[in-house]
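Researcher: We plan to redesign the surface later, but first we want a full-length starting point. Tokens attached.
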């Protein structure tokens, strides 16, 4: 896999995970209601987005 493909996939993975987390938070009304399970899922995907992208970019250098 070329370096440009890894950069592209890192950006796409980050954007999709963060967007999915935000959509989940907004659909469950976020931290306003007593919907702790879906709030946790949304926060998990946002955190995952900021973890997956840099990990893919670090694979580009090796």
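Model: Full-length starting sequence:
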């Amino acid at each position: 896999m070329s370096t440009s493909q890894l950069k592209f996939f890192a950006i796409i993975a980050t954007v999709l995970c963060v967007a999915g987390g935000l959509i989940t938070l907004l659909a469950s009304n976020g931290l306003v209601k007593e919907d702790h399970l879906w709030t946790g899922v949304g926060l998990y995907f946002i955190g995952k987005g900021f973890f997956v992208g840099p990990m893919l970019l670090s694979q580009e250098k090796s």
